[in-house]
Amino acid sequence: MDSSNKKRNAAKASLEFIEPGTVVGIGTGSTVNELIRLLPTVKDRVDKVVSSSKSSSTLLQEQGFDVSTLNEVGPVDIYIDGADEANKRLHLIKGGGGALTREKVLAGAARRFVCIVDESKLVGMLGTFPLPIEVLPMAQSYVSRQLVKLRAQPIWREGFVTDNGNHILDVHELNISNPLEMETRLNQIPGILTVGIFAHRCADILLIADESGVREMRA
Ligand code: 5RP
Question: 65 and 50 in one domain?
Fold first, then answer.
């Protein structure tokens, strides 16, 4: 089974968490794109939809959904999104698609965060995937120097501008043995808008697709 089939299976398994009358938050990425393609099958259960990126909003509209803003809907019942890495405590690295800021806002606003991945995303320790950090463009050099002091190697994602008009640093070689502590520490650096570690607001449910099906882990 190739990875896109696994992504589709994880996405399909998440549909059962959408109950009637639900406000659904939708993440960003190739796994979520599978979800968006399947979402019309449960349209009767969806009250409103909010999205974490312009690209997901466009796809949702193509599938016939009106996309609301978070300010219009208030609390989000369920947020469904992928991840670049997940550990067994359901801490995540996110932001490979550069949408981490709005993703973190929607995860924070959600009663329940369901993360959908294929088995390749499950890791013992976070950090093999370079950590995405969204920075204010004017602070990029300063933030990079602070990260080098932590013995990490920040690389500017050249030519990429986020939906919020900011830049992304992809941080290599960062020691994330304690995701909660590292998320807190990086959040103290002025100029960092969002750190792609999702540990303080981790997933509530992780759906992992492999060759034999989809298994569930809970925080
Ligand atoms: C986007 C994200 C995605 O959830 C993450 O990059 C996983 O993407 P994919 O489903 O394509 O593997 O955080 O900012």
Answer: yes
Are 13 and 85 in a shared domain? yes
List active site positions.
103
Tell me, in angstroms, the distance from the centre of ligand 1 to residue 155's CA: 18
11 lies in the same domain as 99 = yes
43 backbone dihedrals φ, ψ, rounded to 5°: -55, -35
Note the pLDDT tens digit of each residue in 63-116: 999 999 999 998 999 999 999 999 999 999 999 999 999 999 999 999 999 999
12: domain range?
3-123+200-218
Interatomic CA distance for residues 57 and 35, integer angstroms: 13
* CA 82 – ligand 1 centroid, Å: 5
The CATH number assigned to the domain holding 101 equals 3.40.50.1360
Contacting residues for 180 by C-beta, under 8 A, at least 6 apart: 91, 199, 200
Ranges of the chain with pLDDT below 50: none
- Predicted TM-score (pTM) of the model is 0.97
